[in-house]
Fold each of these.
Amino acid sequence: MYTTEMSKNPARPAAPSEAPELVAAFEARVANDEFIEPKDWMPEAYRKTLVRQISQHAHSEVVGMLPEGNWISRAPSLRRKAVLLAKVQDEGGHGLYLYSAAETLGTSRDQMIEALHTGKAKYSTIFNYPTLTWADIGAIGWLVDGAAIMNQVPLQRTSYGPYARAMVRVCKEESFHQRQGFEITMKLAAGTPEQKAMAQDALNRWWWPSIMMFGPPDDNSPNTAQSVRWRIKRETNDELRQKFVDVTVPQAEAIGLTVPDPDLKWNEERGHYDYGAIDWDEFWAVVKGEGPVAKERVKARIDAWEKGAWVREAALAHAAKQASRRQKEAANG
Amino acid sequence: MANEPNTQTANEWPLWEVFIRAKHGLSHRHAGSVHAPDGEIALRHARDTYTRRMEGVSIWVIRSSDVVASDPGSAGPTFEPAESKVYRHPTFYVVPDYIKHI
Ligand SMILES: [Fe+2]
Ligand SMILES: [Fe+2]
C-alpha cells in the first residue's frame, strides 16, 4: 500500500532522553482518540515514522500519475480523456496535500523530493508495473484506487491532525477514481471478444500486484503493533487485503471476468474468500527497484524536476525584484 | 498548517496558508498550504489544489511565516481562565418556568 512499511529496520523504541511523563501523556492522548497537532510534543520515533509514511504516501500519489499520464494522449474518446486528465490532476493534488502534512513535522519539500530522487524514500510498488493497453487504465482505477480507498478510509481518523485532514480530502475525491476505472473495465468486458480479452488480460496482470499493495503478511510486519497503537495504521495488512478481495471478487464476476487465482474460493465457515499464495519475493524485488519500469519512473521524476528548475528560479527572482521595487516605492512614498 | 521548524532550503518557494470561503455568507476557513514564489502564484496554486470541485467562491493566502500562533505548551494558562466563568453562559441563571420569553 501507499503506506506500507518498506524499510526492514524502521522505528526504534522511545529515545531514552525523552521524559517518561511526556511520553505517557502523549500515549494517553492518542489512546483517548485525540488528535496530535504540529506544535504538540511527540516522541521522536512517532515523528520519524510519520514523516516516512506520509512522504512515501505523497511520493506514491505523484509517481502514480506516470503510468496513467502515459495514456492521456491516447484515450479512446474525448470523454475518457477529460476524465483521465481530471483523475491524474487529482493524484497530483493528493501528493500536494500530503507533502504539506509532512512538512508540518519538520521536513522540507526539497528534502522529500531529494529522498525520492536518490532512492532513499520509497513509493508504492504498484507503480513500477507498465500500462500496456487502455484496459490497464480501467484496471488501475478499479483495483489500485480501490485498494487505496481501503487503506485510506480508516486513516481519516489517524492520530496526526494534518495527516487525518489530508486523508478526509483525499477520500472525498477517490471514489470517482475507482468508479471511472470500473466503468472502463465494464465497458470493455461487455464489448467485442477482443475488448473483453483485453480487460481480462489487464485483470490478470494487475490482480496480484494490487493485492500485494497491502504489504507483507502481518506476522512479517514487526511494527504493526506500535503503529496500530499510535493510530498511524488502523487495520493490519492482512485485514485490509481480505476486505479488498471480498469486495472485488464479486465485482469481477458480475462483469464476466475471472480473477487469476485458481485457489480462490468462498469459505463459508470464515465468511471470506480464501486466496492463493502471494509471491513475496516479487514484492521485495519491486521494493528494491527491480520492477519492470522502476528506473523509468524515477528518471521521469528527476527529468521533470530538473527541467522545471529554471522556472522555479525565474519565479523567485521575479518575486524578489517586485518586493524590492515595492520597498523602494514605500521609501520614496 | 502554520509550520514551526523552518526547514525551507535556499531556493525553495516559500509556504503559504490557504483560506477558502465555501459560499457567500460563510467565513474563510483554513484549507491547507501551498508553495509559491509570490502571492499571485500562491492564489493560482491554491485554486488548482483546493477548489477543483467548486469548493470555494473566494480565496485568501498568507505567508505561513506571518502567522502568529498561540503556544500549545501554554494552552492551560491561556484558555483555563474561561473555564471557571460559567456565569458567561445563559444557563447559569435560574428563571422560574412561569416567566416566558426570556
Ligand atoms: Fe490518490
Ligand atoms: Fe486515486
Amino acid sequence: MKQLVALRVNGELHEVYVPVHKTLLEVLREDLGLTGTKHGCELGECGTCTVLVDGEPILSCLTLPVEVQGRDIITVEGLATQGVPHPLQVAFAELNAAQCGYCTPGMLMSAKALLDRNPDPAPDEVREALAGNLCRCTGYVKIVDAVRLAARRQQGDLGAVVEEIERALNEGVVREPGS
Amino acid sequence: MPTNGYDDRKNRSNLGSHLKQETSVVGRPLMKVDAMSKVTGQAIYADDIHLPRMAYARLLPSTQPHARIVRVETSKAEALPGVLAVITGRDLPIKYGILPVSQDETALAVDKVRFVGEPVAAVAAVDEETAERALELIEVEYDPLKPIMSIEEALEDTEVRIQEYGHGGNIHKMVSLQFGDVEAGFAEADYVREDLFFYQGNNHLAMEEHSAVAHYSPDGKLTLWSATQTPHYVHRALAKVLELPPSRIRVIACHPGGGFGGKSDPFHHEICAAKLAMLTGRPVKITLTREEVFYAHRGRHPVLMWVKTGVKKTGEITAMHFRSMLDGGAYGSYGVATTYYTGALQTVTYKIPRYKFEGLRVFTNKPPCGPKRGHGTPQPRFALEVHLDKICEEMGWDPAEWRQQQACEPFSLTANHLRITTIGLKECIEKVVAASGFREKFRKLPYGRGVGLACSAYLSGANLPIYWNDMPHSGAMVKVDRGGGVTVYCGSTDIGQGSNSVLAYVVAEVLGVRPQDVAVVTADTDLTPVDLGSYSSRVTVMTGNAAIEAAQNVRELLFQAAADELGTTSDQLDAAGGRIFRRDDPGVGLPFAKVAQLAEARFGTLAAVGSFTPPKTPGRYKGAGVGPSPSYSYTACVVEVDVDPETGWVRVPTVWIAHDIGRALNPILVEGQAEGSVYMGLGEALMEEQVFRRNLHKIPSMLDYKSPTFLETPDIETILVETNDPHGPFGAKEAGQGPLLPVPPALCNAIYDAVGVRIDELPVTPDKILKALERKAKGQDPRVGPTRMPHVEWVEPIYVEPPDLRHDPSLMPATKPT
Ligand code: FES
Ligand code: FES
C-alpha cells in the first residue's frame, strides 16, 4: 500500500508517493536522492542515519515519513547556509575528524543539535551527546576536538570560510591551544 | 606559514632520501584533499550509486552450518512478478580465493554449505522487497553433516572434513620453521618460562555495510563499483569466475566506509551482482545487511598460543619457541598468510638469537576469518608482551628499561632473516614512559589502579606480492596540463587513511606546486596503473615512492625546458612555490604553468610514470614470503586502568602511544591512525568478540556486538617519533596498523598492576576479572586463560641458520638517487 507524504527537507517541500512502511532513511536516499545520509544497521543501533527533525536528532532508519510530515527535516545536505559550510563541517574537515567519512553526516547532525542548545560544550558533554553515534575510524578524539573548535568559531561569510578552507588545504590547519 | 601548533623543525629531513632537505608540503598538518566532500555528504560510497533501470539483488543464506545441498528449487521464485533472475551455485561453479594456494570459494555454494549465512542463491528483482520475497520462495533441501565449531573439534575429528584439501583432516595449513638451536638456547638460559594465551576472534565492524553495483553494457563491458580495498584482486577474480577477458572488466573502488581489512577479499556479492547484471542486462545493486556483514566476516582469527622463552640473568634472551593454532572458519581467505604472520614479527622488536615457530590453521563451520588491522600479528604480540611482562616481574626487571636494553639494532638482520632498517623503539619507550609518568606509577598506584607497558612492530607493506609475479607492486602516472594543473593516477584505494592526500602531497612537493593544484584519480582499473591494494600497511610507502618517481620523471622534462630559458642546466634548478627557478639565484625563475607550456611545446604531451618494487628479501627459505618489508614501524604504549574489584569492570582513563612513523608526511593524519588503532585495540581487548552458540553466530547485530562508544574511549595521547627511513617516501613508514598491536597487552599488564591478576585470554570481560580475583582470594593461581594446547604431531621444521645479529652497516640501503 502506498501513500502520499509531504516532507519539508532542508527547507524544500517534497511530495512523495511511497509504500507505508518505507523508512525516512530510504525515502531520503532513494526517493529524494539525498544520499548524504548513511546507514550502518537499519535497526537503530549505530547512529549513522541521524537527521534533525525540528532541531532534534532522530534515527531516520526507525522513522516513518508520515510521522514527520510537515516538520522541519535537516540532513547533511542542508547544513550549509547559501553555500557557506557550517563551522562544524569545516572543523571536521580541518582536524581530520572524518577519516572514511561514513559516520560523519550522522555525527554532524548530532553535533549540530548539541551546539544549538549548548554553544560551548565541555568535552564530556560532547561525548555524552554523541554517544549514540558510532565511529570505527577516528577513536573519537578528533571528533571531540572538532566539535569544540566549531563551537569557538563564529559562522563566517562565504569569502572568509573559503579562505579558511584554502589555507587548511595548502598550509596547514590551525590547532588552537586546548583544541 | 601560520602558527599551527606544529614545530617547524618537523619540516626538515636529515636523511632526505628524496632530494629536498626542506619541504614545503611534506610534514605539514594539512586538511585532506577530499575532506570537504566527506563533510558535506558529497563523497560517493557504493550504496549511493543509483543508475537508470537499476535492479536490486539479495542473497539466500544457508541455514545449516555444515550440510550437503541435495536440491535447490528456484521455479517459484522465478515466477514471482518483478523477479528478473535467480542464480545458484551451478551458475558460478569456478572457484576463486584471494590466495593462489587456497582457491576454495564459489560465489554461491555448489554442493555443500560450510557455515550458517553462506550464500546459496541470489535473486535480482525490480526492488529489494520483491527480491526478498523471492528468497522466501526458494526451497533448499539439505543433508546435514556434523558441524565442527572449535579448534579442538577440528583437530579431533579427522573423519568429517570441511574442505577436501589442506594438510589433512581439518588442518588447513601447518608450518614449522626453526632458526638456530633453540634447545641449546634454553639450556644456557638462567630462567625459562612457558605461557598459554587465547585471543578471541572479532569483526572489523566497518560502519558501511559492503555494497556493489554492477553494470554490463551492450558492448560487452562489465563495470563494477564496489566498497573494496583491493580493486585489482576483485578485477582478477571477476575475470576468472565470469570467464571474461580482464580487458572487458572495469572495477572502480568507491570510497569504502571503513575497511580495516574487511573489504580486502573478492566477495560473493560482488561476483553475484556482476553475473546478475550480465543475465538481466540491467545495472544491479547489492548491499549487505549488517547481519550479512558478520557472515562475510574475514575478521580476526581466534588464536590459541603457547610461548616459551629463555633469558639470562643479565637480561639477554637466549631462545624463543612460539606455537599458534588458528581457527580459520570455513574457507582459506588470507589464512595461510595469517598463519605465517602469527610467527613472523616476534623477532623484530627485541634481540632473539634463536627462534622456532610452529603454527597451524584449522577449518571450522564458521564464517571465514581473514585479515583485520594487524593481520595475524596482534594475537602473538598480545601473548609475547604479557609473557615478557611476567618474565620481567619474575626476574625483578623494570619492564621499560629491559625492553630498551633488548631492543633490536638499526640496520640489522633478525634470526629469521628479516631486515630491520631504522628502529625508533628505544625512543618510543622513553617518550611514552615520560609522558605517562610510568615510573612514578608502576607498582605504586593504590589497589584497583594500574599502568601497563607494551611494545610492537609492524611492516610497511609486504615485500612479496599475493600472487607470484615480477612486476611492480605499485604504479603511478603524473600528467601535467598546459594550464599548470597536475593529475596523479594510481590504483590505490583511500579507505579513510588519507592515501589520496598522500599522493597529492608527494607530487606537489616534488613539482613545487600546492596540493590543491594536484588532481587525484585512484582505484579504477581502466584509468589507473595497478596498485595491489590497501592492505598490509603498504600504501604510503609503495604508492608514495611510485608517485615520487613519476613526478621526478615529469619534472625532468620541465627542468630541461626551463633550463634553456633560464640560462642554466636542468640539474641547477629547483621547484617550489609554483615556480621553477635557479638554485643559485632563486629570483631567476618561471611560473610553473609557463614551464609546462615550454615543455609541452618541446616534448609533446607531458606525462610520466613511476613504479615501486620492494627491495629484495634476504631470506631465501620456504616461509620467507611473510614478514619481510621495506621497513618496520615501532610502537610503545602505556595504558592506565581503573579496575573495580567488586564488579570486575575495567575503565581506561588514558592511553599514551608513541609511534616511530619514520617521517610524518602529515602529522594530523598519522595521529588519526594512531588514535583509531588505540580505540580498535581497546575494543578487542575489552569487549569485541565474534562468538557462536549452538552452531549459530551469537550476536550478528551491532546492538549485541559490543564496541566502544565515545563514553568507553579514553583520552589518547599520541607522540610521533621520526627516524627518517631510507626506504620511505621522504622517510615515512606505516601508521595504519602498528599502533593497534601493543594496546591489548598493555591493558592486561595494567590490570595485573592494578589488582594482581593475569587475564591471558581476550577479551577481558568483567566476569573473567571476577573469576581471577576469586581464585586469588582462594590462594589459587590468580589467572584466567587457556590451560592446555591440544596435542598435534608437528611437521619437521625447516631449519635455517640465523645470520649474524650484530649491527651491519653493509645492510644500510643506498640512498635513492634523486
Ligand atoms: S542505520 Fe544504524 S541507527 Fe539507523
Ligand atoms: S570516520 Fe569512518 S566510521 Fe567514522
